[in-house]
Design brief:
0% strand; single chain; 9 helices; 71% helix; mainly alpha
């Protein structure tokens, strides 16, 4: 043992014990931990002083106390995520992507892309901006120079056409769009 270090510790550190304990009781929420905290602070200070004596022992003592409390708080917030057993023994199904599922997903994506390509131009652009790029309705309206109400209608129309095509409606989105155009022309002719 280093008697010079022990003497320094008794003269420079232990003399502040009452202030240290008072400080710990004031700032640390768990009074039961104060004794352990004090001991750990003393260990840290003693070990550090063994390497090099601090120039301001009292400041060093309280800085060590603050750092130790910070470390404990930080460790207390960490949630350990570790496997606690053998997962295979739990008889849990593992979600694997089988070749069949991968193929099915690609086919679904292909059908959706085909249906999307068949949407009328403006409807396709509105649906793309709203559903794929997730732009706000207001921004889509401003970007395309249309009203927000038109954006709503185009999105609703696009979703309906996609669903009809995807789930096997008798008409394709292009046919439906042509029907809508025919209806508009028919309506114009009747008003003329």
């Amino acid at each position: 043992m280093d008697t010079a270090l022990d003497a320094w510790f008794a003269d420079e550190i232990l003399v502040h014990e009452a202030a240290l304990v008072h400080y710990l009781r004031r700032v640390w929420a768990h009074i039961d931990d104060v004794h352990d905290l004090r001991q750990e602070i003393y260990v840290r200070v003693y070990e550090a002083a063994g390497r090099a004596r601090p120039h301001q022992p009292k400041s060093f003592l309280f800085a060590t106390a603050r750092h130790l409390m910070t470390d404990r708080l930080r460790r207390g917030r960490v949630v350990s995520i570790e496997p606690v057993g053998d997962f295979e023994s739990l008889n849990v199904l593992v979600d694997e992507v089988t070749p069949e599922r991968r193929l099915g997903a690609r086919q679904n994506l292909r059908r959706l892309a085909d249906a999307f390509d068949l949407l009328p131009g403006r409807c396709r652009e509105v649906v793309w901006l709203r559903r794929v790029e997730e732009l706000p309705q207001k921004e889509v309206a401003a970007r395309m120079g249309i009203t927000e109400k038109t954006v709503e209608k185009q999105v609703a129309k696009g979703m309906r056409l996609l669903a009809e095509h995807y789930y096997g409606a008798t008409q394709s989105p292009a046919d439906d769009a042509q029907d809508a155009d025919r209806n508009r022309e028919h309506g114009r002719k009747q008003t003329d």
